[in-house]
Amino acid sequence: MRKSTIIMSALTLAFASCAQTDVPAELKGNPFVEEWNTPYQTPPFSRIELKHYEPAFDYAIELNRAEIDAIINNPEAPTFENTLAAMDKSGRLLSKVALVFFNITESDGSDELTKVQEVVLPLVSAHSDNIYMDARLFERVKAVYEGREAMNYTVEQTRLLEKVYNAFVRNGISLPEEKQARMREINAELSTL
User: Fold this and answer.
1) Crossing angle, helix 92-107 and helix 111-132, to 10 degrees?
2) Other C-beta atoms within 10 Å of 153: how many?
3) Which of 12, 46, 86, 190 lies 20 to 30 angstroms, CA to CA, from 79?
């Protein structure tokens, strides 16, 4: 199977799970929160307008934060399913919006898109920091990671677990609060460059 076919299949699956039914009234008509009834559920580029990106990013970040909060607040003991798989399934709408937006900004950018990018990149960066520097979420991931030897995880599950655990470590979860704050500043600055 060609790499482009694999990527398109992954995007199709991601986009297929992004349809939102209970969206705020101000997002009605925004193609990002609708199911895409196009061949292979490709983005309906002719319907996507500049004005759709910022509200879609805002809403997608809000939804993703709620998904992450649900994982953190799950009263059950951390397991692969209720922590790692749940994290992996979260953020579908954010991925949907970001994949289209960054593809367009890289391939057919404009001054108007650059202005939107200057607004959304710091938001996305801060959202990522909020996830990967959340000690409560990391404790759940760490519990699963530390118990991995006793479990019979598949190669894919083990790889996901290692990838997520390392993402927390690389994003500064082990740093003291003042250094995490500095890392957030650096990330925010990088997002605007």
Assistant:
1) 140
2) 15
3) 12
User: How confident is the model over 126-139, as a mean pLDDT?
Assistant: 96
Least confident of 57-71, 99-113, 132-146: 99-113
User: Is the model more confident about 23 or about 186?
Assistant: 186
Helix, strand or coil, per DSSP, at residue 26: helix
**Dist. CA 56–CA 30, nearest whole Å:** 8
- State the Cα–Cα distance between residues 193 and 186, nearest whole angstrom: 11
CB of 6 closer than 8 Å to CB of 79:
no
Terminal Cα distance for the chain, rounded: 37
Q: Which amino acid is at 173?
A: I
